[in-house]
Hints:
Elements lengths: L2 H51 L7 H6 L19 E2 L10 E4 L15 H9 L3 E4 L13 H11 L1 H5 L3 E7 H8 L11 H9 L17 H11 L11 E5 L12 E5 L1 H4 L6 H19 L4 E7 L2 H5 L13 H5 L7 E2 L2 H10 L15 H10 L4
Parallel strand pairs: 1-3, 2-3, 2-4, 4-7, 7-8
Antiparallel strand pairs: 5-6
Amino acid sequence: MNNAAILKVPSALVAKAVASWSYRRFATVALCFLGGFLFFHLVTWKCFTEDLLTDKYHGGDLSRMGYLAGSKHYRKTFVDLPRRHLEMRDYHGQRVDMLTIGDSFSFGGGRGRNPHYQDYIASLNKLTVMNVMPYPTDDLVMGCSPLSTLAVLDNSGYLDIIKPRYVLIESLETLALARFARPFKWTWTDSLANVVRHYAGVSGEWPALPKVSFINSGNLDFYWRTMMYQFSDNALGHTVFRRQMDRTLFSVSKGTDLLFYQYDLQVIPFTTSKTIAEINDTMNHVAEILARKGIRLIFMPVVSKYDLYSEFIVDNPYPASTFFEKLRPLPKNYLFIDTKAVLQEEVRKGVQDVFFADDTHWSWKASQILFEKERFR
């Protein structure tokens, strides 16, 4: 065998060995990367984001949108009151004392224990209370237009069939300007058959969050937002703000953190004496229409979370809301539930969890506090 032939044998063996080693290394690196990828997502999911992004525990929209751990208020939804409200699909001609029409606060949006304030009205006053979900009119603001819904009930003739003694209009303070501070009209309507058919198919149940796999972009967002909140109150442009308060007003691990929505701040410059007077005039007009039918109007603007807790924010750089301060002294033909005055008194006493730490919604404590004070005959 010549030298060239002799050299070919080990060269082939070396090339085969190198190729085999490269495949093993590639496979090893790929497996390590995959294992690290799965480990990162699984650990982040189990330690943080599963609680924030799923209905494993009912929780709030602020901690979920901001990916803010430590403010999660763990809760399960249940009712332990003796009387419960009705939804429109439950109406079969029985006596109804009060209709409630509003936004997510009227839908039990905070969830947890006794999420519907209507159940406290019913239980404490022994009244039959029925909630009306929004009718699909063309002027919805964040999915709701309470007065348009009431106009449809009135103009269709359904209100004359139900014949309630009270109609309670509820709206979050920050959305009341868009809903009510505009020219008054009472023209929305539909046929009685359409209205009845619509409400027969509306459940009124709070929708569950969509299913999320443990591998998701939120795991990366969690670490990014956690870092960005170190530099600004809203993580450099996010919709959820976080500021520290001078006292612990929530029973969570970060009980001095106040989470609130950006719109709470954005609407403050538009809360003028003129816009508040327009809201009051609108409610007085509606009160007059209902009074002709023997119905008393109740207006319950819900104080925003920022407005309720802003006085406790350390070195607060943001303006105060004056919605309730401007509305209180105006002449009213309707019953006014001043949620800020009632709840602020309790918060100043140090009562925790009047609102949920992780949510824009109030808790059962707020409902109980309000309707132990506000009674209806």
